[in-house]
Amino acid sequence: MAATLHEMVREAARLHSGRTAVMFDSGSDSDSGGSSVTYEELLSSGNELTACLRKHGVVNSHILGLFCQPNINLPQWILGILQLPSAYLPLNPEASPAQTLRIVNLCNLSFCLVQCDLLQQFQANYSSSLTLEISAEWPEQNLALVRMQSMISSTTEKALLKTGCEQVQTGHKNESHSSASETTSQMRLAYVLHTSGTTGLPKIVKVPHQCIVPNIQHLRFLFQITPSDTVFLASPLTFDPSVVEMFLALSAGAQLLIVHTVIKRMPSRLARVLFNFHRTTVLQATPTLLRRFGRHVLQEVVLSPDSSLRVLALGGEVCPSPAILRSWRQEGNHTLIFNLYGTTEVSCWATYHRIPESVLTSDHTTTDSVPLGAPLDGTEVEVRDKKGCLVTEGEGQLFIGGRERVCLLDGEVTVTPGMMRASGDWVLVKDGQLYYLGRKDRLVKRHGQQVHLDTVQQVVESLAEVETCAVDLCEGSRLVAFIVPYLGTTASRNIHHRDQASEHADLRGDSVLLPMNRKIQRRLSHVLSSNCIPDTVLLVPSLPLTTHGKVAMNELKMEYERQRQNTGIQQENLTLDNLQEILAKLWKETLGLAEDVRIQPDSHFLLSGGDSLQALRFHQNINIATGTNSAGLLEVILDGSYSDIWNHITMATIFTEAGLDPQVPSKRKHEGSSSSVLPKKQIHAPPSTTAPETLVEGVLHFNSMLMGYVVRRAGEIIKLGYSDNTVCSDNLKAEQATRSKSFQVEGHKTTEDFNSNPSSTVSERTISKTRSTFTIKRGLSLRVLWSSDTGRCVDASPVLLVEHGSSHTATVFVGSHSHRMQALELTSGAVRWERVLGDRLESSAAISVCGKLVVVGCYDGQVYFLRVDSGETWWTFKTGDAVKSCPTVDYVTGLIIIGSHDGHIYALDSLAKKCMWKQNGLGGAIFSSPCLHPPLQLLYAATLHGRLLCLNSVSGVPIWTYSRDVPFFSSPQCSNSCVFIGSVDGSINGFNHKGAMLWQFATSGPVFSSPCVTSSNPRVVCGSHDGCVYCLNCTDGSLVWKFQTTGKVFSTPFVFESPRGQGTLVALASTDGTVWVLNAEDGTVCASASLSGELFSSPVVWEHMLVIGCRNDYVYCLDLNSKEDSFRL
């Protein structure tokens, strides 16, 4: 069996001397059929060149440069060099002279064969750096032999070579498996190439015959190459697949087809040349090169039923998914498709996989990826993890080698047989198969999560609107998808028109292309996780290629930068009018909304379907579009309304234009702020109760503590005035259920009459609901006792104070976006008092340990301490930003603990009127409410920067911290052994009190709801933006039951004992305005009500009364009774 490339050709020439060996097609109309040479002519011309080279002193062991374009004489030139014997080093005439000079110097090149047509170019490029002497010219060969000598000093040259050698030998020691080694003189080199240099300086790779010959022989067997085949030379000489293409044909007596370089850049013309004129049967190409044909040509010509193409071998890039391959084939096509994988460092291919016909014809494949397949003859592959250990299942880096499959890199002069080279490619080992994940440098961390850029690219390409695409990071972190639209779309026709009309067309500003951008991003949001969705979709007419047929990513990044500069020009012409248009456009683009969607001023980004990663994308796009980088914008996006964002960026832009430092506060500024817009509801109340800064003189009698209960969201019931002030157990909840007759419903402020519909029924998991109706089941019903108009939306959750004693009074305290704090009688809804505070109230209130003060946080940054009996101000404490966190009361120390958007947690002593301690939350505003575990003196708090903190509740000293890359809006809740919290990444999490995660339960949407913990049977109930409420086992996080509501669940469930003897119940609200009461054991519906507004407030229940705030400006009290009715609001 032949041991060298040229011996294989000589053997084929002996058997097929009269057959055509090489066909060259220039693409010229006058060159009908092209020119050709037979095997006999090829061998003769090769022998002549060998003799000429020897005559002029080119002897064994030299490396010869070859500076040429593909043409009819190319194979004979390579054959002549190999027969010396010497190795050829292809030099690309289109490469930069500096890159070529580096290669020439690193290889100590003394001679170069130059195509006569290119001799003048060669001299012009290199005569200033190299001493050039034309030793001979052979017109019949169209070649000149040029002797070269570097003008770089020998010391510098040796340093270059030594550096390269040392670098490789260092790695060589780590990768060796044998002490034996071979020198360059023992290895007969066939050719010398260099890597692309995409991850650094290009590496020189010297390839012995013994490394490449087994590759060609095995592939020739796999492809069943015969003398009747025509193999296309698709790859440039500087790309080692060209060696396989050339010698696959010439070692089998087949025909090698070469076309002019210009024709390769004309996809339609190339398709005609390959398949209409020359009936090509074997095509080896990169997927990018193949995609240049377009889906229509691929289906109708390349992979049609009557296509001449017998074998299609894809390599050099990640293989397209089976779905994409199917979209390229027309039914009835029988082309065999192979996936080839390899690296230049172990030239050429390492593995192969023939894609089964069943995969190419079935729509029900189990994988989106094509395996790398089995090793080729003489090749060994293994997968190692980051520690160098072998991986048999899971992810790791692929290593390639073999006893004789070894090349010399850079300055290496010795090599260890069997050396395994690191490929730089990450793969997944699954069920004995290898699946390509991407280059090591294409596996990036984005928003703290690993992203496979090549996998993202495959998903984008799977969209029907996409012809082909490339995905990469620009400016370090922005994920950009460069997309060529499918030829059949309006966007594709438009983009090609724009490309022809203007070299500098703004592709993002086109009225046809923008909807396509949004459509693609909307589609991607359904198939990609948030961290993988591109920040920018840039439509381009085509993907530029490198000389190796791969995507020229640098050119695409230059196009992206040009678009950015165009955006910068637009920034100079910003006005408030077009700023509003820009913000609306970015909002819709980021959320994937239709162009005609109307954005409501109070729309919340996260509640409109966004998530934290989309918020980051929105934040970046606003900064790019406006040319500003205002502090606090991200927090406003995460926690504010659309109008808040508009106000924020307007202020930032105005300050920037004025040349001032945009000191825009990060707290929300609303249309209803006290300085700009009057509250909707006009209050008629005594001045003493409406003055926001009235301070009460004197002291309260703290030694006479109020006796009773405090009822707060999440099922929290606290006993007041007893020696053991604690959060009540389920036994106490049962006790309050048995005393349902303690409060008789008196006349109410607003009584609603409802129409009965006894025939309405509710299924176990769904409710038949029309607008403004609610239906009840299983002996329970809900009807409105009263409602109170607060003047604006009520997002705060009510808190109830139930007093014991002769009066048996119960009061509802609740704040509103109208700046009002109301104290209402629980039984009637009558207003006890009402206060207008300094800004909006979203924080739920708390009752001090003495029962004499109600405490609430405000958007003006103040924490207000108001008297329970009159609403008068006892004390205010100023934080550094808005307070949306709900206060927590330590009933042991009496401290009020609260978080602020200034990023701090405060412990306040209301009696002494001072801050006892203040702790930084380690970055990020604090939206959620702190949670106490008194027995262990632990305090839990969570931040919008994704940190869950555990502090000592007495001193505020941090004990442990858990970090995540997404914000926490959910408030932590404790049981005796665990702490629970929801996350906007869609999970509900359980930790022990030492900070170890015990379990994580995944929902299908962000979790803003806070958990509610039951103690009788250890369960946690929590809602999700996927519309479900989940009941989980506290111990292991396993699902007990889940219930699908008719909206999203933002608020916190409330677990309580039924006053009508129906056992333990769960009250909750969905954002579509529905209040639900479920059986806590199995999640079945017991009752429901539909209010005429969105619900973000959490319900609280005392005996048979459920109180909740609504975005229609009202606070409602619903009566839970045992009549079975259907009501209408």
Automatic annotation (TrEMBL):
Bias (Polar residues) ranges: 753-762
Domain Carrier: 582-623
Source taxon at top rank: Eukaryota
SMART domains: PQQ (SM00564)
Sorted UniProt keywords: Lipid metabolism
GO biological process: amino acid activation for nonribosomal peptide biosynthetic process; lipid metabolic process
Region of interest: Disordered: 663-690, 739-762
Pyrrolo-quinoline quinone repeat domain boundaries: 790-1120
Domain AMP-dependent synthetase/ligase: 10-403
InterPro entries: AASDH_AMP (IPR048005), ACP-like_sf (IPR036736), AMP-bd_C_sf (IPR045851), AMP-binding_CS (IPR020845), AMP-dep_synth/lig_dom (IPR000873), ANL_N_sf (IPR042099), Beta-ala_Activ/Resist (IPR052091), PP-bd_ACP (IPR009081)
One Pfam family recorded for the sequence: AMP-binding
Similarity comment text for this entry: Belongs to the ATP-dependent AMP-binding enzyme family.
Protein name: Carrier domain-containing protein
Organism: Denticeps clupeoides
Gene from which the chain derives: AASDH
